[in-house]
TrEMBL record:
Name of the protein: FAD/FMN-containing dehydrogenase
Source species, domain of life: Bacteria
Annotated signal peptide: 1-18
Lineage: Bacteria, Pseudomonadati, Pseudomonadota, Gammaproteobacteria, Pseudomonadales
Keyword vocabulary terms for this entry: Signal
């Protein structure tokens, strides 16, 4: 009897509905690597979600050599789920290293936003939006594929 509440609470995240094509994404606000707030709005056309360091490295590799403002010019927002990263490591090493990137990274430190968009942990989830509504989604497993998609989404 004592185990039922624990089991039910453990399964609760599995009942959460994944966002589906045609649905409007709920707005959220997160801080980037410079502690600057960003709120998801209707002007965002693409949301990239990385749930792991491997997925974030794919985004970094896809953006190597691209100028500052590359993502913004394409109305792309990059969201990194760093909730599993130890806070001390994030604060002392990871986030300061991200400040050298030529692009903004919205940091989901508490796991409030990224779980809304389920996908493979080792891939980058691409959510295509129009006026805040999801119109398509893809997953990318290589930096080359992601870079090609970003180029097609040109400004």
């Amino acid at each position: 009897m004592k185990y039922w509440p624990v089991l039910l609470l453990g399964l609760l995240p599995l009942w959460a509905q994944a966002v589906e094509v045609g649905e409007r994404l709920a707005p959220w606000t997160l801080l980037d690597q410079f502690d600057q707030a960003y709120t998801l709005d209707h002007q965002t056309q693409t949301l990239l979600v990385a749930r792991s360091m491997d997925a974030a490295k794919l985004v970094d590799a896809a953006l190597k050599g691209e100028p500052k403002g590359y993502l913004e010019a394409r109305h792309v927002v990059f969201l990194a789920d760093i909730q599993r990263m130890p806070r001390l490591i994030a604060k002392m090493f990871a986030v300061p290293a991200m400040r050298d990137y030529s692009y903004r990274v919205m940091l989901d430190r508490e796991g409030r936003v990224a779980p809304r968009y389920p996908g493979a942990v080792d891939k980058v989830l691409w959510l295509q939006l129009k006026d805040g509504q999801l119109v398509a989604q893809h997953e990318y497993a290589t930096a080359a594929q992601l870079h090609e998609a970003l180029e097609k989404a040109g400004p």
